[in-house]
Design goal:
268 residues; Immunoglobulin-like; 3 domains; elongated; single chain; mainly beta; four-stranded antiparallel β-sheet
Length: 268
């Protein structure tokens, strides 16, 4: 019998099931790079270029058997290693603004929704999502499917400080955003205009202003700029020479679904 010296194309080889090898295993020398996982100090070095699926039920080995006559199969230890969530398990990433209570500045947080795709989900306590920072890696562990990039900050919304301006019969009020918004999903400002300075006076007009960080309005002809404006010019109240008072409060819906409100401002 004459053996052929012709090389066999690597694509014609049946590489079989993915295997797990230790970092110092000699088998790594001859194993095809995308057909094995490397164990480094007890953790898995997983290549994104791995050709085989970790969730496959194996392949038909046909006549391939071990030296003991058994068909090859994964050990219980290997099954644990193979049960690894993939990057496709990230269902969504939601970005939302919030106020840093220390610096009082506006920042953005990312909320990741991760699906538990383990083959035995009841045995998985949670997903350990690590956030990389050049100086520190901070672990965040949760037993549910939602992983937050920062802890929940309870909203304690402040009371708006209102500026008022009258020009003849034209009237206008304005205010800026308040501090203490915390971890919010929605912010609005509810206002009431009345014909009395009483804090319980019935409303002549009422409405809400939607949260903004970019709007800027001139209040009357004062040259004073505010993020929010309620005025006769905008049709919120009819122009009049009679006295009118406005009071406003902050209403915050937290990312936990709970609504938090400030008290109303002093009528002005």
């Amino acid at each position: 019998m004459v053996n052929s010296n012709k090389r066999q194309d690597i694509n014609d080889l049946n590489r079989g099931q993915v295997i797990v090898l230790s970092e110092d295993s000699v088998d790594r020398v001859i194993a095809y790079p995308t057909t094995y996982l490397t164990i480094k100090g007890g953790s898995i070095d997983y290549s994104k270029y791995l050709a085989s699926s970790l969730y496959s039920d194996g392949i038909d080995f046909g006549d391939y058997i071990n030296v003991d006559g058994e068909i090859p199969k994964d050990s219980e230890e290997d099954e644990i290693y193979f049960d690894i969530p993939e990057l496709t398990d990230i269902e969504s990433i939601t970005y939302e603004p919030y106020t840093d209570p220390a610096s009082k500045s506006q920042k953005i947080r990312a909320i990741l929704k991760i699906r538990n795709s383990s083959r035995n989900p009841s045995a998985i306590e949670g997903v350990d999502a690590r956030i990389f920072n050049p100086s520190v890696i901070v672990p965040r562990v949760s037993t549910n499917s939602i992983i937050n990039s920062s802890e929940f900050i309870t909203p304690t919304p402040g009371v708006p400080s209102v500026y008022f301006k009258r020009n003849g019969t034209s009237i206008a009020w304005g205010w800026n955003n308040v501090s203490g918004l915390g971890s919010f999903s929605e912010v609005r400002y509810d206002w009431i205009i009345s014909s009395s300075s009483s804090s319980t006076a019935p409303a002549l007009e009422s409405g809400s202003e939607t949260y903004s960080t970019t709007d800027s309005f001139n209040i009357g002809n004062s040259g004073v700029m505010k993020t929010y404006r309620v005025s006769s010019r905008d049709g919120d109240i009819a122009a009049t020479s009679q006295f009118r008072w406005l009071r406003v409060k902050t209403v915050v819906t937290g990312t936990n679904g709970t609504e938090y409100s400030s008290s109303y401002s002093v009528p002005i």
